[in-house]
Amino acid sequence: MSTDPSSQPTKPQLTTPQPSAPATQAAAPQAPHSLCVLRLTALGDCINAFGLLGALKRTYPELELSWIIDARFAPLFCDEQGHDLITLHPLNFKEQGLKAILGLRKELTGQHYEALLNLQTSLKASLTSTVISADHKYGYDQERAREGHQFFITDPVKSPDNPHVLAGFMAMAEAAGYPVPEPYWDFKLDPYLIDRAHCLVSHEKKLCAIAPCSAQPSKNWTVEGYIEVGRYAQSHHLQVVLLGSHSELELSTCSSIAAALPGSINLCGHTNLRELAALLAISKIVVAPDSASMHLASALGTPVIGLFARHDENRVGPWNFMDLNVSVYHKLAQSERKGKPIPWRYRVKQDNAMEHITPDMVLATFERALERYRI
């Protein structure tokens, strides 16, 4: 049996069609030849940014690309030999604080870009942008800008009709002269890494991965809900594997779920980012809240059921599997706004918002996923 995740028939084809020759030729004279992308955090947003970068690299192979990223997340975007999948400039804010920006200025001495895509509106990203030399600095328009973002860019880009964060990234690339039809992800997971992932789990059963935690605890669903989903997966002869980081909350959550699911495999805290990617790649289905694991599964072509209450799934959902979202966001947001328009970045305020998602809602979507993706 092949260990290449892209060969699995149950997953959608993620190949990106090339733009027509006339469109490319028309854009080339006005388009820059060197692009710098600035997206530091969070990991899920970096995975979306990687989809844009992959599409740019695939569609415009002569384009020089650089990516300014938080050092914590850079290892996901390097192959097993330590080579950057995209030229990376990692910033170690955790240890160096804002001094990391001074280090970047020194690193980029003599480097000039024709365009910077500032994909992040935080003040930290804006300060970082000041040491990047570029003819044009593209950023968000008034609808999406915040924290003084508009004072650090030269070219605000009109928000696209599609509210998804990644659609906004693509709109910025188009404004710079490099339209891409769809994002494209290629993590270049080595076959031996895929083999190692298989060795950690049962070869005899199809995998259902549950990654129950987000970096923001308020976006996490209930342990009881995940247990019901896990039992449902086991009743369909799926091997349940629990995934997460080594944080105390994630370790505790996964241990509680595993204790109620005899036969499940708890790998929480036992994988690095590339190993996590390999496990998600060999899984047949994933259940997760709005999190990096959710975006990573989607990028790898693995059907993922995303759970939403605090944030709009249309803005931050898994790009390739928006049809599997389970959301109570709009109901809760409309209630809180009392008929007023819901802003693009609006966050539901109640702390127990995720408890409004019922197991029956998730199980109904799980059943639909089993049929739609022939799991």
How would you characterize this protein structure?
The structure is a single chain. By secondary structure, this protein is α/β, with parallel strands linked by helices. It has 14 helices and 12 strands. The protein has helices at residues 21-27, 43-59, 93-96, 99-107, 123-129, 165-175, 191-200, 223-235, 248-259, 273-282, 292-299, 313-316, 329-337, 359-372, and strands spanning 34-38, 64-70, 87-91, 113-118, 134-140, 155-157, 206-210, 238-242, 265-266, 285-289, 304-308, 326-327. Strand 4, helix 5 (123-129) and strand 5 form a beta-alpha-beta unit.
Question: Could you outline the blueprint of secondary structure elements for this entry?
Answer:
Layout lengths: L20 H7 L6 E5 L4 H17 L4 E7 L16 E5 L1 H4 L2 H9 L5 E6 L4 H7 L4 E7 L14 E3 L7 H11 L15 H10 L5 E5 L12 H13 L2 E5 L5 H12 L5 E2 L6 H10 L2 E5 L2 H8 L4 E5 L4 H4 L9 E2 L1 H9 L21 H14 L3
Parallel strand pairs: 1-2, 1-4, 2-3, 4-5, 5-6, 7-8, 7-10, 8-9, 10-11, 11-12
